[in-house]
Every structure is written in structure tokens, then in C-alpha cells.
Amino acid sequence: MSINTHPRNLLVFLLLIFFLLNFSHPPLAFAEHNTSFDFPSFSFRNLTLLGDSFLRDGLIGLTRELGVPSSSSGTVIYNYPIPFFDPQTNITASFSTSFSFSISNVNPTSFGDGIAFFLSPDNQTLGSPGGYLGLVNSSQLTKKKFVAIEFDTRLDSDFNDTNNHHVGLDIESLISIETADPLSQDIDLKSGDMINVWIDYMSDEQRLNVFLSYTNFKPNNALLTVDIDLSGFLKQVMYVGFSASTEGSTELHQIEKWRFQTSGFRTVRPRIHPHNISDNSVLTPPILVPESPNKNHRRLGLGFGIAGPAFFCAFLMVFGWISMKKWRGIRMEKSFKAELVTGPRQFTYRELNLATRGFHSSRIIGHGAFGTVYRTNFNDSDTVFAVKRSKHAHEGKTEFLAELSIIACLRHKNLVQLQGWCVEKNELLLVYEFMPNGSLDKVLYQETEQDKSLKWVQRYNIAIGCANPDSNARPSMRRVLQILNREAEPVFVPRLKPSLSFSCGLLPLSLEEIVSDGEESKTTRSIDIKID
């Protein structure tokens, strides 16, 4: 009896075990967790800027900074959703936030409209300019769900504003539930000075307080206090951010720093170290708990539910990746062993890797049709070769086999001799005789690094070699005419043999360069090669 150990069968078997284990214990649920983050200054990390908002010198501008009146709206949103309601315990979180903002103007007579801090169930909040404060779209006033604290600098009768200088609580509407005038505490929203704000919502007391101050000290008395239950408006997760707008004014709205935190969720287990998701923001990871009344079962399910599937998934992916890679390598190696011809030496990948210093860029001496050519130096024998490394091992397999099987059998004084090959580590490598004098065209036009210059006698010998009466050593007349008319590239790129005579040597880069226009090439033997 034999067992099929094909990697795909093993993967199916492991997947079956995973599903059996994963569904053999009670379902898991996420316990909502308290969240906090702090931005002493701003960067693009963990923030999304929409509309006309911009970042400059650690500050966020929400509207355009122009010297002429214009209409503008902008939004900045914290990237990650924040839990505000736990359906397992029916608890709504309390939250507190503090930030600094300023409203300035190039033209003191051109103020309006304002800035708002908001909580929203979506992260694409970008509303219309003007009295809409960038919170809602003018054509969809009732579709937007949000909770916001507005700092308004314009009297807009459409939204029942009390004056042109107020702070208000807005819930799913721009008509404020309750407002207060900061001038009652000597705070001028239009002063251009940085104003510090503290907003606290106590879920157990169902009360929201808003504090304003020019200093860094939180006042004892709140500017705005509203007794309200927000549990009906806070979804399971919400996004937090700021928006601002202008209409026909030069008002500029800026945010300098921002801190936010939630509280009130029950602690399931001792809090683990928070996970830093940026340089200036911290988000506490969620905690998994099983839905079981038994405490021991809960602990067992918690540990198994987190560690078991995670470890198994990681093991499954690693095992599958290694198995498939090894399986493909074995198949390719067996295929090559059946197709490769005998003759040239088989090098090991380690030999060629050491001889080229890990295929370092400093060893590159040229680029062929299917790969890069490297200079190799073998320290033990002082032998120098040229190694061509295929660009794509799988895509170049057919070309590699054709070149290796046929060029290895060619014997011609003007052909650079193939010395060896290597098929390891998913690499296809050909080892050629090294041509130290470079290519003929570079020597003729003095483009070599050594700045060699051919003497007249040497040039004459080369010309005689190119005019060889042997027809097999010359291109056909049709190809010559095509070359002269610039309709085709030269058939052969000459390479200089490693001798002082500068006779011509040709590097066979492909079969087309060896056999062309019906001319036959002589080989030492005839072989049949089957290529998949």
C-alpha cells in the first residue's frame, strides 16, 4: 500500500484538520476595548485629510489660506474605527478629548463659518462649505449620521443660530440642541489665538461638558453642559475627526494638537502592553473572549481560540510554501537532468556564486538577450570565465535548453566556446570562455576602459578575417544589403579572442545568430533534443 504525499493532498488534509479544530469549540466574540491616542503634533501617519485640508509644520489646516474671499471645506479623520458600544455587555463607552485650535483671518471683516469636532460611522465625511461646516452635504441633510461640537462664527438663520459666535451640540442635524457663547468666559473664537478645548462625555451620568481656555489648564466651570444619553447615536464603532468650512470669507481654521480616549468597557483580563501604530498614536488591541458562562471553559477557549488557529494558519502557510517550492525544484531538476547534454562541465551554484562575489554588480561585463553576463574568477585555479545568468528561470527554460544543447556541440574557431552550465536554486547559468579584450566595436572606436587603440596592421588583419572566402564565416548577401540599408542589425557581434593577434571571436547568444538565411553550421555531432 502506498501513500500519496503530493503537496496538494497534504494541504487538503491540513485544511480539513484546521476546520475541524476551528469549529469544535464555542464561537469567539471580540470584547470591546478602551482606546486612546495622542498627537502632540501632526504628520500624515494614521490620519486622512479630505477636501481642502492640508498639513504644514505639524499643524493641520482645514480650509484654504487665501487673501481673497472664497468657499472652502476640509476634514481630517483618524484612520482607525474606535469602539463606542459593546453589544455583548450593552455598554456605551464614555469618552474625553482635548485639542487646540485657532480661527484667524487675513481680512478682519470677512469672518465665517466655523469648525467642528465630530463622531461619525463612516470615514468619508466631507460636506459642503458655508453653514454646513463640512459636516453634511447640502443635498443630503437628513442622511448623515453624526455627533458634533461646533464652534460657529456666523449667524445662519437656516439653522436657528443664536448669534455669530457660539459653541453648540449637534446630533444628526446642524440645528444645535443647546448652545453657549464663549464671550461669557472672555473667549473670542475669532481672535486668531490658540484656544484649548476639553470635551467630556460621561456615559453613566449621561452628561456632556465642554471647556474652553487660552491656557493649558482645564477650567473648573464648563462653558457648555448638556444632559443627554448618546447611547442611541453611538454605533458599535465610530470614526473621530474635525471639519471646517468658509463661504465668501478668508477665515482659516487650524488644529495644533489632539488627544482622545474612551473608557467604561469592562476589563476582561489584565491589560497587555499597548501596540504602537505610529510615532505619536497608541491603539490598544482587542481582546478575544468565548461566549461561555463557565470561567474555566472561557479561559481554555480564549487561549485555544487565539493561539491555536493563528499558529496553525502560520504553520500551514509555511509548510505549503516550502512544499510547493521543493516540489517545483525537484520537477525542474529532473526535467533538466533528462534534457541536458553531456560535454561541458557542470558547475555548482556555490562555485559560481563565490566566483562572481554573489553576482555583484561590479562583476557585470555585459547584457545578453536573455540575461546578464558576469566575470568569474576562480581563486584556486586563477581561471577566468564569463557567466550568463538567465533573467527568468521558468520563462527562459526553452531558450536555455536550446542554447545549451546545440551550442555545446559547436566547434568553430570564431565561436566563443561554452565551458559549462549550472541548474540550481531555480537559476539557469551558462559558463563561456572569457574575452578579456572586449568587443571589436568598442576597440575600434576607443570606447574601452583601457583606452586601447588598434594599429593599422591589427585593423588590416581583422578586415581580412571578416572577408574570409569561406562562405560559412560570412553573412549572406541579402543580410549584407539589409544591414547596409539599416533594415537589420548585424548578424554577429564580434568579440576579440584572448590573443595578441586580435582575430575575431563570436559569442553565440541565440540559435538565430548561429544559423541564419538558410546557411548551415557545422557541429561535431548531431543530437535530438525534446523540449517541453
From TrEMBL:
<keyword id="KW-0675">Receptor</keyword>
<dbReference type="GO" id="GO:0005524">
    <property type="term" value="F:ATP binding"/>
</dbReference>
<feature type="signal peptide">
    <location>
        <begin position="1"/>
        <end position="31"/>
    </location>
</feature>
<dbReference type="InterPro" id="IPR000719">
    <property type="entry name" value="Prot_kinase_dom"/>
</dbReference>
<keyword id="KW-0812">Transmembrane</keyword>
<dbReference type="InterPro" id="IPR013320">
    <property type="entry name" value="ConA-like_dom_sf"/>
</dbReference>
<dbReference type="GO" id="GO:0016020">
    <property type="term" value="C:membrane"/>
</dbReference>
<dbReference type="GO" id="GO:0006952">
    <property type="term" value="P:defense response"/>
</dbReference>
<feature type="domain" description="Protein kinase">
    <location>
        <begin position="359"/>
        <end position="532"/>
    </location>
</feature>
<dbReference type="InterPro" id="IPR001245">
    <property type="entry name" value="Ser-Thr/Tyr_kinase_cat_dom"/>
</dbReference>
<keyword id="KW-0547">Nucleotide-binding</keyword>
<dbReference type="GO" id="GO:0004672">
    <property type="term" value="F:protein kinase activity"/>
</dbReference>
<protein>
    <recommendedName>
        <fullName>Protein kinase domain-containing protein</fullName>
    </recommendedName>
</protein>
<dbReference type="Pfam" id="PF00139">
    <property type="entry name" value="Lectin_legB"/>
</dbReference>
<dbReference type="Pfam" id="PF07714">
    <property type="entry name" value="PK_Tyr_Ser-Thr"/>
</dbReference>
<keyword id="KW-0732">Signal</keyword>
<dbReference type="GO" id="GO:0030246">
    <property type="term" value="F:carbohydrate binding"/>
</dbReference>
<comment type="similarity">
    <text>In the N-terminal section; belongs to the leguminous lectin family.</text>
</comment>
<comment type="similarity">
    <text>In the C-terminal section; belongs to the protein kinase superfamily. Ser/Thr protein kinase family.</text>
</comment>
<keyword id="KW-1133">Transmembrane helix</keyword>
<feature type="transmembrane region" description="Helical">
    <location>
        <begin position="300"/>
        <end position="322"/>
    </location>
</feature>
<keyword id="KW-0067">ATP-binding</keyword>
<keyword id="KW-0472">Membrane</keyword>
<feature type="binding site">
    <location>
        <position position="388"/>
    </location>
    <ligand>
        <name>ATP</name>
    </ligand>
</feature>
<dbReference type="InterPro" id="IPR011009">
    <property type="entry name" value="Kinase-like_dom_sf"/>
</dbReference>
<dbReference type="GO" id="GO:0051707">
    <property type="term" value="P:response to other organism"/>
</dbReference>
<dbReference type="InterPro" id="IPR001220">
    <property type="entry name" value="Legume_lectin_dom"/>
</dbReference>
<dbReference type="InterPro" id="IPR017441">
    <property type="entry name" value="Protein_kinase_ATP_BS"/>
</dbReference>
<dbReference type="InterPro" id="IPR050528">
    <property type="entry name" value="L-type_Lectin-RKs"/>
</dbReference>
<keyword id="KW-0430">Lectin</keyword>
